[in-house]
């Protein structure tokens, strides 16, 4: 049994009109090479459309039926072996009264384009400043006017010549300030402060660093809430498949999703907090080990009991 993530661009869902939370059919479309089509479904390259180059496969799942098309030809039609639709579809960000969620990208598109334009303009100004433009006043016609070290210009009486300075008057600073403003807009819209990229000029740490990263932390917590529900649904599907294959009863089961810390933790302080909670009878040693990041608390507790028994035998 394998768990994978299909390309969402080839994923289609149908839901009950009055309840978007109830999906009655899901279709997954993807492409296979001739060798893969023959290996998986026994289809020869000569049987494929599009000159035998690529096979377009569509899997259609309902709670009762499974159908498989290859290049618009129905290859299989049988009962659903699972008894449920083996897909977990969850939104990136839920939009009211709509099934599909919102992407994080659209709000960042226009500021990114504006940033690209601003940097291109600044680059052009710097390039022209490195190759200055000669300005002549009172001259009707000029030849061989070049800007280079040691150049001598012959000008008529009362004529003026000078180099155009595009950087005078602090104009370059206006462009830099505008670019910094766009950067700030990007960080605000993406909820990723500049410090999250490692830029920490004030050397913040502890609570001050957490407050500075608060927008990003809130964003991650929202993502975790959405994904935790999806992971629990996925785990239940896996256990239901195991029940069918092994005959062992696994469900219902209580699940707990454990996420790693977002910021560097003070290990000694965290240990003291967990010790205090255990001694006060507020939580178990098993939960304390999970909070401290121990992968297998049961095995660790078994080792502790074994060491304690061995020590008591030596003392006796």
Describe, in plain words, how this protein is organized in 3D.
With 316 residues, the chain is an alpha+beta fold. The model has no long low-confidence stretch (mean pLDDT 84). It has four domains: 8-79, no CATH class; 106-147 and 159-190; 199-259; 267-315, no CATH class. It has a five-stranded antiparallel sheet. A two-stranded antiparallel sheet has the order 6-7. Helices cover 42% and strands 16% of the residues. It has helices spanning 34-41, 106-130, 171-190, 206-212, 214-246, 267-279, 285-291, 297-315, and strands at residues 11-16, 19-32, 55-61, 65-70, 73-79, 133-137, 160-164.
List the helices and strands and how they pair.
Elements: E1 11-16, E2 19-32, H1 34-41, E3 55-61, E4 65-70, E5 73-79, H2 106-130, E6 133-137, E7 160-164, H3 171-190, H4 206-212, H5 214-246, H6 267-279, H7 285-291, H8 297-315
Number of domain units = 4
- Biggest beta sheet summary: 5 strands, antiparallel
Helix content: 40-55%
Describe the oligomeric state of these chains in a short phrase: single chain
**Main structural class:** alpha+beta
Instruction: Find the count of extended strands (DSSP E, 2+ residues).
Output: 7
User: So what's the overall shape?
Assistant: flat
Strand content: 15-25%
Ends: how far apart?
A: 51 Å
């Amino acid at each position: 049994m394998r768990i994978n993530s299909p390309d969402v661009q080839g994923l289609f869902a149908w839901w009950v009109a009055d309840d978007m939370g109830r999906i009655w059919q899901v279709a997954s479309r993807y492409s296979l090479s001739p060798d893969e089509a023959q290996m998986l479904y026994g289809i020869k390259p000569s049987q494929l459309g599009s000159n035998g180059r690529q096979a377009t496969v569509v899997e259609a799942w309902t709670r009762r039926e499974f159908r498989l098309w290859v290049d618009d030809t129905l290859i299989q039609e049988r009962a659903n072996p699972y008894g449920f639709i083996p897909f977990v579809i969850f939104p990136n960000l839920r939009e009211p009264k709509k099934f599909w969620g919102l992407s994080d990208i659209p709000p960042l598109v226009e500021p990114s384009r504006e940033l690209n334009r601003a940097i291109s303009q600044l680059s052009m100004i710097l390039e022209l400043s490195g190759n200055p433009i000669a300005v002549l006043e009172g001259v009707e016609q000029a030849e061989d006017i070049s800007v280079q070290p040691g150049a001598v210009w012959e000008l008529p009486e009362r004529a003026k010549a000078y180099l155009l300075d595009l950087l005078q008057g602090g104009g370059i600073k206006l462009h830099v300030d505008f670019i910094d403003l766009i950067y700030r807009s990007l960080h605000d819209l993406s909820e990723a402060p500049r410090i999250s990229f490692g830029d920490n000029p004030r050397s913040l740490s502890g609570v001050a660093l957490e407050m500075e990263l608060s927008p990003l932390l809130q964003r991650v917590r929202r993502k975790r809430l959405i994904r935790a529900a999806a992971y629990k649904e996925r785990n239940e599907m896996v256990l239901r498949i195991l029940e069918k294959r092994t005959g062992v009863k696994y469900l219902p089961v209580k699940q707990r999703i454990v996420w790693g810390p977002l910021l560097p933790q003070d290990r000694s302080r965290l240990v003291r907090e967990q010790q205090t909670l255990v001694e006060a009878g507020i939580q178990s040693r098993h939960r304390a080990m999970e909070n401290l990041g121990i992968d297998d608390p049961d095995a660790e507790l078994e080792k502790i009991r074994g060491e304690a028994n061995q020590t008591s035998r030596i003392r006796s």
